[in-house]
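note to self — DONT lose this again. spent like an hour looking for the file last time. sequence + predicted structure for the chain T wanted, 134 res
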Amino acid sequence: MKPVYIDFQEHGDWRGQLVALEENKNIPFAVKRVYFMYDTKEGVVRGKHAHRQLQQILFCVAGACTISLDDGKEKIAVRLEQPYRGLLIGPGIWREMYDFTPGAVLMVLASEYYDESDYIRDYDVFLDSIGEEK
């Protein structure tokens, strides 16, 4: 499994930087939900789930954090620490977010509205669902 990064174009000058996000252009789906995590305490692990249909792009717009990705066969960990770099996560990937730096803000763009039935929150159920797809 290879992480899928999207590096968004930075526009800047002496005043600072700007990154524009446009659905169905540099975001490969229509954005139906945006949320962000901040003030994550030391030692806390967020996520711990997979999605059945949802696509997401994760950005650390401030600070840094580590994202663990697991497709049921392979696990990798990636560090998000540049605000212009997004990590695309499709359905069927277990994800955990941890090791947040002080002041980190993790922003998520989602392809669907919140739907609890799209979540797989039990790791054994996730592994079973991967086996069903084969």
